[in-house]
Specification:
- A nine-stranded mixed β-sheet has the order 1-4-3-5-6-2-11-12-15, with helices on both faces.
- The chain is α/β, with parallel strands linked by helices.
- The protein has two domains: 146 residues, Class I glutamine amidotransferase (GATase) domain (Rossmann fold, 3-Layer(aba) Sandwich), CATH 3.40.50; 128 residues, no CATH class.
- Helix content is 26%, strand content 26%.
- It starts with a helix and ends in a 19-residue tail after the last strand.
- Helix 5 runs parallel beside helix 7.
């Protein structure tokens, strides 16, 4: 005969199973490190008892100096004193002290650990050690470098799968420069060729430097989107509209958006889909509207792409990725590279919007 306490025990067991499913299974001990894997670990080597809260979230930076306020005020409350993993191919441990003690030197939001992993081969990207580190991380940060290396060495590996799992369980995912470049559904990554420039690609959208790839991580706010870094400083708006035109003309997508982020500038996108800008310059968003026309995009012929919309979002502004809308109005933008000396209308597409218009400007 079953006692009256059995149903209660079954209920408790069921609740524990639900909690385990939410928090995640025990990852077990850290696996042995491969002999040829270089890591730099600061802090506690065990898995943090803290879990990410209030995520998932994206933190995107355009290169140059990091935007400390974006980490302190946006990312770290989600990381919740957990573990941070930095992935890179070149460089060393430059992020360790910055993430571990410079942003918060003490208190509950100071990370439990920061581990930089030099992921220099596909074999290492498939290793148990790396997968364990990623599966126990509350933030995964992609350092600057060469996005071509990242795709060549990491795409299609267990590392890519672990990054996706981190997003799905609510972690912060982000990167700067090349790390930003792999955040969109579509990725510009020159592999074995020189980097694309605006002047060259506007005159020939099918130049060999224009190499486009599919997503590395799937996040809802980056669908139908390609990103670019060092945006204003390296005059990349021209090449970015070429990327957009190619994605449309070559049948990759029926609608495309560009997010270009300048140096020392950050875009944080929380689970509500609202993007928050911080830093010294601006985030530039280029989107297609009802009147957009891809008039000419052919090999060895100048690009003609009219009726685009462009937002310049300085620090303190927001963008609603659910509706493609901002409290800052969009500026009409057209490209006609047959006039090579002045291919844009308006002539300076980086300028600040300068009208009395207000409220939301909707796209589709």
């Amino acid at each position: 005969m079953l006692s009256a306490s059995v149903p209660r025990l079954l209920l408790i067991a069921g609740l524990l199973a639900v909690v385990a499913d939410v928090v995640g299974e025990d990852p077990g001990p850290r696996p042995a490190k491969p002999a040829d894997l270089t890591v730099y670990l600061t802090g506690n080597a065990a898995d943090a008892p803290n879990q990410a809260v209030g995520g998932p979230a994206l933190l995107l930076m355009g290169g140059g100096s990091e935007v400390t306020s974006a980490f302190r005020n946006r990312a770290y409350p989600i990381i919740n004193g957990g573990d941070i993993v930095v992935l890179r191919v070149t460089g060393s441990d430059g992020y360790n002290s910055y993430f571990y003690s410079d942003i918060y030197s003490s208190g509950p939001l100071r990370p439990h650990s920061v581990e930089t992993i030099m992921l220099t081969s596909r074999t290492l990207a498939d290793s148990d050690y790396v997968v364990w580190a990623l599966d126990t991380a509350e933030m995964i940060w992609f350092a600057g470098g060469d996005q071509g290396d990242y795709l060549t060495l990491w795409a299609g590996t267990r590392t890519q799968e672990a990054v996706q799992r981190a997003w799905d369980r609510g972690a912060v995912i982000g990167g700067t420069s090349a790390g930003l470049a792999i955040m969109g559904e579509f990725i510009y990554a020159p592999i074995g060729v020189s980097s694309a420039t605006s002047n060259t690609t506007l005159q020939n959208p099918y130049h060999s430097s224009v190499q486009l790839h599919q997503a590395f991580v799937d996040t809802p706010w980056m669908r139908n989107t390609i990103t670019d870094s060092h945006y204003r400083e390296r005059d990349r708006l021209g090449r970015s509209v070429v990327f957009m035109g190619r994605l449309r003309a070559d049948g990759w997508t029926e609608r495309v958006r560009m997010i270009g982020i300048s140096e020392r500038t950050a875009l944080f996108i929380g689970p509500d889909g609202i993007g928050h800008v911080s830093g010294n310059e601006a985030v530039y968003i280029i989107d297609e509207g009802f009147g957009t026309q891809l008039v000419q995009i052919q090999r060895n012929r100048p690009l003609i792409y009219t009726g685009l919309l462009r937002w310049r979002l300085p620090a303190g502004s927001t963008f609603d990725f659910n509706r493609s809308a901002s409290t800052i109005p969009a500026m009409p933008l057209s490209v006609d590279a047959t006039n090579s000396s002045a291919p844009f209308t308006p002539t300076d597409p980086y300028r600040t919007w300068n009208t009395m218009m207000g409220g939301y400007l909707m796209v589709r």
